[in-house]
Design a protein that fits this description.
Length: 245
């Protein structure tokens, strides 16, 4: 076990996290991003696609990632994936989305949490993308945060997965694990994003969310984490862990 206060060995830690992730399915929004051709989750084979298809995928991916992340808030991963795919089968661009009624969007994304509110936000986001941004999702933090239902977590995930812009997306898993590992000491997830920017090498800003979400879902959960089968045991001071399995 790493001594408290010692510097993390980032390369070794992230190599172990990548090996762990290779044996598990991607989180829902990362899957959507990969399927849509998002820059951060693209498969090597996609490089062989035609220039036209590649350009279209890069244009569509930020919108699909944005909407699926809006759907994901307060919603289980498997529900997010199913809801997003049902919706995108009917509408995958802002223009197509505005052809759907609010009631139809509610039907398609149900049973995600707060589905009525999210349906309204999806329509408003789509309208503003068309009217204020020429039909393209903006690629700056301030513009993304101006959309209804979009907070720092959602905006950073769109920047990272959709545009390949280094940004740290912090959800409950990233916040919990980064504190347990002793990388940061924060109380709120939004504070964790800024704290991680100060210690985490930039090359890991985009993948940290994908890797720690998977790790948190399967090993380092809330309550009693599975420390007995944790591949990061040699690097973790178990900060705040009172009981484990």
């Amino acid at each position: 076990m790493r001594e408290r206060g010692s510097e993390p060995v980032w390369g070794e830690i992230f190599a172990l996290l990548e090996a762990f992730a290779a044996e598990h399915e991607l989180p829902s929004v990362s899957l959507i991003g990969r399927d849509a051709g998002g820059r951060a989750e693209a498969e090597p084979a996609e490089a062989e696609a035609s220039a036209e298809a590649s350009a279209k995928a890069e244009a569509d991916a930020p919108f699909l990632i944005l909407i699926s992340t809006v759907i994901s808030l307060r919603t289980r991963d498997e529900v997010t994936l199913a809801s997003s795919r049902r919706l995108f089968e009917q509408a995958s661009t802002p223009g197509q989305m505005l052809c759907l009624s609010r009631e139809r969007i509610e039907e398609l994304i149900y049973p995600c949490g707060f589905y009525r509110m999210k349906a309204g936000n999806i329509l408003e986001i789509s309208r503003r993308i068309l009217e204020e941004h020429g039909g393209r999702v903006p690629s700056t933090l301030s513009e993304l945060l101006a959309f209804p239902g979009v907070g720092l977590k959602t905006a950073n995930l769109v920047l990272g997965l959709g545009f390949g812009i280094p940004a740290i997306c912090v959800d409950t898993h990233v916040h919990r694990i980064a504190n347990r590992m002793g990388w940061i000491q924060t109380v709120k997830p939004d504070d964790s994003a800024a704290a991680l920017e100060g210690v985490l090498p930039r090359e890991y800003w985009i993948p940290v969310n994908r890797l720690l979400v998977l790790f948190g879902q399967n090993v380092c959960g809330p309550g009693r984490p599975w420390c007995s089968r944790c591949p990061l045991g040699d690097y973790c001071p178990q900060m705040g862990v009172e009981a484990f399995r």
